[in-house]
């Protein structure tokens, strides 16, 4: 962090914190550590009031000869224009890029609401037919066509395109980091140009999720001939918008696809312009002059802006990304349950919410609190050590943490040197995550901690080799229960870098995978989280509540718990008849 930022106001400093969590390419950090092995209250999420895609099926798009009053104008909003080394939608792990690609590339299915897990048809004409528990038959919407751009030039989307998109990820190339998601598929058969059948190896509760997740963007073979990656200048899809530009850390934009198959002559917007501001002064100026229609801001900045611009409409939703700590269960002293308990219970999560998010956030079990479909209820979580509310709860947490540490010390000794805490350097520079953990553990347990900041790539390597026994940083968030638990906590999980081996937990995780009853599966998810909280191999500490401020003329602005929902911008529109539209730049 440069010297100038040190003297800026709290809401200006907040921009750096937002960038840290917004740039998911870095925030995937600990979450994706083992890919190369082979494998607070709860808010109601904002949903667009006019969401034509909310139906499981979509009507064919009518002739676009007559456009309604909803059509026209380019939406201008803030966000992150950050990516990793890959532009290929099947390889990148950068959330902002995946969000931009979600407007360009279609999937067979899509999420109406990630927090609640509701899924609708996208490229598919309807939800898949299920002749038995292991078979899914998709019929492609006959109106679906690729963008009228070379090399595809508006040709129809076919079942062969779908098969290609999934098979290329299963090719054995380890840079396809989401390949393990497709391990459940036994065979793929194209039975007609518009029909494709997937056979699963076993019943899978998350079967629909496979085809709605960002791993399932459908791409054309022409974009990746001879096994090559899809570059940034070849982002041609079949979604509601056409790719226009992407300038790292500056801006990105898309324009309307007039031939989109989504129905109701959507998208309504002529285009979308995304700007990554350098300071929050730019955000405030942009909103005041209406050069920006919407801005994602901190709680502090939102309150400041609303005092001067009371017309602004606020939308909020919890974001499933989170800050976490991880322990290596094969290293002393972290291989002792009592020591892990002491550390985990002593951490003051509510101070983290105040410090990192200006109080706009919440405490999480392993599944972040915004994922309302699966997260352990707050009423239960607040009875768990480390999560108990109020001064009395904090005192009880400290008593339990000190008792656990004393029990450990009655049989074992700590190393004489301070314990190293490995932290992603960007995280430490931006918000001092490691320093706060160090100070909290010193005050609560009189433990000496030494901060070891390092680049993400280096930390990932140390995690894989068990040379970073105590680590902290940002983690990405997920949608389906299986994504939260199987890769990380099952003994065979491809991202289980703790590594955790617990037969009782394995049995619960395996059972939820095949449980097709929603309520029963949710209860299994609760049992899994209780077991993880009991074992404490690590901790999902806190997640943020995102705030968006919009001028009232913006209608149907979407938000969701993680990137990949941006195809829903097809239903967003600008009401030029709204009084606040007058004077828009």
Automatic annotation (TrEMBL):
InterPro entries: Peptide/Ni-bd (IPR030678), SBP_5 (IPR039424), SBP_5_dom (IPR000914), TAT_signal (IPR006311). SUPFAM superfamilies: Periplasmic binding protein-like II. Residues 120-491 form the Solute-binding protein family domain. Residues 43-69 have a biased composition (Low complexity). It comes from the Bacteria. Residues 35-72 are annotated as: Disordered. PANTHER family: PERIPLASMIC BINDING COMPONENT OF ABC TRANSPORTER. This is ABC transporter substrate-binding protein. It comes from Tepidiforma bonchosmolovskayae.
């Amino acid at each position: 962090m440069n010297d100038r930022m040190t003297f800026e106001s709290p809401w200006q400093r907040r921009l750096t914190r937002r960038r840290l969590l917004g740039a998911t390419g870095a925030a995937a950090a600990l979450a994706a550590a083992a890919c190369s092995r082979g494998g607070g209250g709860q808010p109601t999420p904002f949903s667009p009031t006019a969401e034509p895609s909310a139906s499981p099926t979509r009507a064919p798009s009518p002739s676009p000869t007559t456009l309604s009053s909803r059509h026209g104008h380019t939406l201008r909003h803030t966000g992150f224009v950050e990516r990793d080394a890959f532009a290929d939608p099947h390889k990148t792990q950068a959330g902002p890029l995946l969000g931009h690609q979600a407007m360009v590339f279609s999937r067979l299915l899509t999420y109406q609401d990630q927090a609640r897990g509701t899924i609708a048809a996208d490229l598919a004409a309807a939800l898949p037919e299920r002749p038995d528990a292991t078979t899914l038959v998709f019929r492609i919407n006959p109106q679906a066509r690729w963008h009228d751009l070379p090399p595809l030039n508006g040709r129809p989307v076919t079942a062969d395109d779908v098969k290609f998109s999934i098979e290329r990820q299963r090719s054995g190339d380890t840079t396809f980091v989401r390949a393990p998601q497709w391990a459940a598929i036994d065979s793929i058969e194209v039975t007609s140009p518009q029909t494709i059948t997937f056979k699963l190896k076993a019943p899978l509760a998350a079967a629909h999720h496979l085809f709605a997740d960002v791993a399932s963007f459908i791409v054309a073979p022409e974009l990746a001939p001879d096994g090559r990656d899809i570059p940034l200048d070849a982002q041609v899809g079949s979604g509601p918008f056409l790719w226009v530009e992407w300038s790292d850390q500056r801006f990105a934009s898309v324009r309307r696809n007039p031939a989109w198959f989504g129905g109701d002559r959507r998208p309504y917007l002529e285009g979308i312009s995304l700007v990554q501001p350098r300071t929050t002064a730019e955000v405030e100026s942009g909103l005041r002059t209406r050069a920006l229609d919407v801005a994602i801001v901190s709680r502090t900045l939102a309150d400041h802006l609303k005092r001067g611009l009371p017309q602004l409409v606020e939308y909020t939703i919890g974001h499933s990304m989170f800050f976490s700590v991880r322990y290596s269960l094969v290293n002393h002293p972290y291989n002792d349950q009592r020591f892990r308990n002491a550390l985990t219970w002593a951490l003051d999560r509510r101070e983290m919410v105040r410090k990192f998010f200006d109080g706009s956030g919440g405490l999480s079990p392993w599944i972040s609190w915004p994922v309302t479909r699966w997260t352990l209820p707050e009423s239960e979580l607040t009875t768990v050590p480390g999560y108990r509310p109020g001064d009395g709860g904090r005192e009880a947490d400290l008593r339990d943490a000190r008792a656990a540490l004393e029990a450990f010390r009655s049989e074992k000794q700590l190393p004489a040197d301070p314990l190293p805490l490995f932290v992603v350097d960007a995280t430490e520079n931006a918000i001092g995550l490691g320093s706060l953990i160090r100070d909290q553990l010193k005050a609560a347990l009189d433990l000496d901690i030494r901060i070891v900041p390092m680049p993400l790539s280096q930390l990932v390597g140390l995690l894989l080799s068990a040379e970073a026994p105590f680590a902290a940083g940002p983690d990405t968030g997920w949608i389906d229960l299986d994504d939260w638990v199987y890769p990380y906590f099952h003994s065979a999980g491809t991202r289980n870098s703790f590594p955790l081996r617990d037969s009782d937990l394995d049995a619960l995780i395996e059972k939820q995978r095949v449980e097709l009853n929603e309520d029963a599966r949710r209860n299994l998810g609760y049992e899994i989280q209780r077991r993880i909280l009991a074992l404490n191999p690590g901790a999902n500490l806190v997640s943020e509540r995102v705030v968006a401020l919009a001028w009232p003329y913006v209608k149907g602005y979407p938000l969701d718990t993680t990137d990949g929902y941006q195809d829903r911008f097809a239903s967003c529109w600008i009401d030029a008849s709204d009084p606040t539209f007058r004077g828009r730049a």
